[in-house]
Design a protein that fits this description.
Blueprint: H1 7-15, H2 24-27, H3 36-43, E1 50-53, H4 62-75, E2 81-88, H5 93-116, E3 124-131, E4 138-143
Parallel strand pairs: 2-3
Antiparallel strand pairs: 1-4, 2-4
């Protein structure tokens, strides 16, 4: 014969089925995952190595870029270059798309110039960077 349990214990057992134990993990807030912008901002130095303006067609940027690449590689032989085009975050969608199209062409030209200087393709990253104003037509090269 089984021992008799008081009804209160039996009822408590039924009510608590499916409950979890409260411990430190219950009150820990999971931090939000960083956005792509947060990651990009965290990884980049505060100032670009070179800013290449494409709104002046007669300017030859390649000698200055070659000099900057050489200096960066002298300081850090395994340097990685981020070639970024600013996109105006405060503008209308069609303006942002126009900046992105033109910026992709400009960034590709700069990436080709980096390759011509002997920078391996796996050390060149291309992308966009949000700019709250209306940036000029330019490409910013960061070294990290």
């Amino acid at each position: 014969m089984r021992p008799r349990r008081p009804a209160a214990l039996l009822l408590a057992g039924l009510v608590l089925t499916g409950c979890t134990l409260v411990d430190q993990r219950t009150f820990q807030r999971t931090p939000p995952a960083p956005t792509a912008e947060d990651v990009a901002r965290a990884r980049l130095p505060p100032l670009p190595l070179v800013v290449i303006r494409f709104d002046q067609l007669d300017t030859d940027y390649q000698p200055a870029l070659a000099e900057a690449i050489e200096a960066a590689q002298a300081r850090k032989p395994d340097v990685v270059f981020d070639v970024l085009t600013p996109i105006p975050t405060g503008e209308a969608r069609e303006v942002q798309e126009r900046y992105a199209r033109q910026g992709a062409e400009d960034a590709a030209a700069v990436a080709n110039a980096l390759a011509a200087e002997g920078v391996p393709p796996d050390r060149v990253h291309m992308g966009y960077r949000g700019d709250p104003g209306t940036p000029p037509r330019e490409v910013r090269v960061y070294a990290r």
